Amino acid sequence: xxxxxxxxxxxxxxxxxxxxxGIDAIALVHxxxxxxxxxxxxxxxxxxxxxxxxxxxxxNSWLAAHTDEGDPLVDESVTYxxxxxxxxxxxxxxxxxxxxVDRLQAKNTKARRVGYQREFMGKLLADxxxxxxxxxxxxxxxxxxxxxxxEVKDDDELALMRKAVQIDLAAYDAxxxxxxPGVNELEVLGxxxxxxxxxxxxxVFHDGDYQCGQxxxxxxxxxxxxxxLYIIDAWITYQGYWSDLCRTFSxxxxxxxxxxxxxxxxxxxxxxGDYLQPGKDSRDCAKxxxxxIREHPALAxxxxxxxxxxxxxxxxxxxxxxxxxxxxxxxxxxxxxxxPGSYIPDARAGVRLExxxxxxxxxxxxxxxxxxxxxxxx
Length: 378
Description:
Helix content: 25-40%
Largest sheet: 6 strands, mixed
Number of helices: 9
Strand order of the largest sheet: 4-3-2-1-7-8
Structural class: alpha+beta
Number of strands: 18
Radius of gyration: 23 Å
Shape: elongated
Order of helices and strands: HEHEEEEEHEHEHHHEEEHHEEEEEEE
């Protein structure tokens, strides 16, 4: 999990950001942002009880949630009853809102300007905050502030991402061993998922593109065929952080065309240091990737079949992404996935190869060192 030291550092940065913007307090409601600042990872999926992290520019803070487990980095934790005998209560957001009103009134909280997550804050909770404050504050959306903070990774975040990558690579080991003509796509996915759980030492999310002979898509009840290329774009979330990698394997012996395309796309990773530098524009990387791919005669028309990559962390896709028309400036501490890919029918269906890189002062560090080989290893 994220460390207390890392959360304290992020809270200090948040306090500075709020003070600079003249914001008195912030109300965070998404589990990932709550985790980022408090170190407690609340569930995002069923039953996903709602929560709010209240943080004031002077440093006072509290967390209202369905549980006080996990030792959150806050001054106080308050809870509501979210189930009886294992049956989830109805109107959890109403319960949370009433708890928020009580907490704000008990502390006689005064806040003229309140930051909120426009993508996630519901009207019900906003109404309860206004009631607790004794009137409507000026609401200030802080989504962009939070996004920019999360672009640069702290040491505790990087430790979790490195672990997530290793879990993902364990899944690739198992997937390769399972790939053979006549094997069901679901069997390949199942082998990879089992390996991921065991490598993590806990249940983790693992899925991704597991359709053989296709650009992408979830695994089907279908047997893979000799001569196809199997693109596996595998995702892991481990203790809140993502790994997103891709390899392409031949089912049986690859054709000359398939191997030629594979080698061409693989070689782009050898020159990635030219683009993943602090101060470089991510759009330039995407344009260079497309131009390079088109140098292969069979790919001259197809080019880059999608974005060239994206930054990654608490969420699978963060900014800046690697697109020819949208992006931004790389900074030290960005973790960026780079995924050259191109697809043509003659290759059944094409190749995509993805690594994750940490941008440092001296250039990119490959976090996902793993063989790029078209033939499966037994």
